[in-house]
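Batch job 17 of 40 flagged for manual review because the log was empty.
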Amino acid sequence: MGLRSRASTGETEPVPAAKADAPRAVAAALADAMNAHDIEAFVSLFAADYDSEQPVHPDRAFRGRDQVRANWSAVFAGVPDFRAELVATAIEADTVWTEWRWHGTHEDGSPLEMAGVIILSVRDGRVAQARLYVEPVQRGGEGIDAAVREMSGRD
């Protein structure tokens, strides 16, 4: 069973079983739980054997929802005004491609601004596996020409 937001209260409630396995409903429930800072609702959306990959950062891979709880408890505590925007979704069978924007203010006053894509595999109304491609937004920098020079090895 997934969760969804009650529009008038900001609280979460169960998603009906008929819709709980719909990947888009699970993605929306994740956003609702993040925005409510509801760690119990959030963690309940992950399978016990959840498998997390970050292909750009292979050392960050982990299994199990206990690590999900630890990670997101730290985020909610460290970014008290954390907000998640589910920008777009695309569905293919039991997989939902999600585009996210995350923002807020760290306890020290510095901004959090991240954006990217998370590809979620849903099983029995829970996230069974995810590949995360979410990175800090870089304001400034040297532009596309510098990025191409670096990529092509012609720095």
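Reviewer: the log was empty due to a logging misconfiguration, but the result itself is present. The chain has one domain: 3-152. Unflagging and moving on to job 18.
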